[in-house]
Amino acid sequence: MPEVTPVPLSRLTTLRTGAAPARMYEAHTADELVDTLRRIWDDGDDWFVLGGGSNLLVGDEPFDGAVVRILTQGIAPVAGARDGYQRLRVQAGQNWDELVAYAVDHGLAGITAMSGIPGSAGAAPVQNVGAYGQEIVQTLVEVDLLDEDTGEVSTVPASELELGFRTSVLKAHYGSEARRRAVIVSLTLELAEWGDAAHTVAGSQLRAALGLSPDDAVTLRWVRDQILAIRARKGMVLDDADPDTYSAGSFFQNAVVPASFARTLPAECPRWPVAPDRVRDRVIPLEDYAGLSPMPATPEPDVKVSSAWLIEHSGFGKGFRLPRSRAGLSTKHALALTNRGGATAGELAELARYIRIRVHAEFGLMLQPEPVLVGVEL
After folding, report:
1. Average pLDDT over the chain, rounded to whole?
2. Which pLDDT score is estimated for 119?
3. Residues linked to residue 190 through DSSP beta bridges, in sequence order
């Protein structure tokens, strides 16, 4: 089993918090990952897996369990794609942005808007990572999943992961357990073959971010360069020289609320409709069919609202800090909580609690944290 000397998790997470755990393992191959987790589960040890460390807030007390670093690498074309598409199998430890760069270099579209997102590929399906209207649910075919209950690896279609807005059956939301305790070993994406030619861009949210009209044609390389520039201006591309990037990206999720609640918010609050679930086909027994089928009621779609706008309009400007705290909002983006240098997890949690309380008091909405919290309470 690839056990190593534990190091402080503050060195391995982008929020730069966390003491050294009791035990640490490094898995460089899929077989090492599977074998290590099976042994830990057999021993009944507490555990969590660590990829890029970009979606974790780890507490200040040492984690009394095992941390498994997923360091597997690899991107390989595989068969089975539709005409005009290419499938890629990606190891869970593969750096996500390197995967996006590979896709762009090979003329493959579908994840370009997610350029610059830190972390590993295996973490992407867990919370259905997305940006500017693109989400991994749009391209994910299947995952190879190691299930804690059985200890077996199985290939699971994306449809069984119940991917939704920043969620899946694998996501342990704040205050709850994941509905399926399992670890992604690899994932398979199906991407459109664009090549080097210019194409029009689907998706109004992405076009708006890029300043494009529906008829404008651009290359994948141009889109990637623009997205990286936009994210850098917001402090969302990792940079050791910039404390605004010592964060977990957006600390709070953009809230998805009923349309009726969204109407109670100020009209200036940015919002985007969320596509409703497809109405299931209704089967009527022949003996009950009277020649007419009533139309099913069409629910009013939920609305995604800007949590950054809610935070700023609750009195928190960019760069806000509590007195004597080393944690603060990014000076570039109000949705990012940052470690300004030596901040503890307790300081970051205190700031997060204060923001949640103020937003709730102002707008009646309790923001939900996006990162996984280990040994931390809000």
Report:
1. 93
2. 95
3. 87
DSSP 270-337: -EEEPPPPPPPPPP--GGG--S--PPPP-PPPPEEE-HHHHHHTTT--TT-B-TT-SEEE-SS-TT-E
**Residue of 15, 18, 35 whose CA lies nearest to 26:** 35
Contacts of 105 (CB under 8 A, 6+ apart): none
Helices assigned H by DSSP within 15-148? 30-43, 96-105
Can you give the pLDDT at residue 290? 57
DSSP one-letter string for 4-28: E----GGGTSTT------SEEEEE-
* Amino acid at residue number 211: G
Q: Which two tokens stand for residue 285?
A: 């027994």
- The catalytic residue positions are 166, 250, 370
Convert 333-363 to b/e letters by CB count within 10 Å (16 or more is b). bbbbbbbbeebbbbbbbbbbeebbebbeeeb
Looking at the DSSP bridge assignments, the partners of residue 321 are 328
78 C-beta neighbours (distance < 10 Å), count: 13
| Tens-place pLDDT, residues 241-300 | 999 999 999 999 999 999 999 999 999 999 988 865 444 445 555 555 555 555 555 578
Mean pLDDT, range 142-155, rounded to an integer: 97
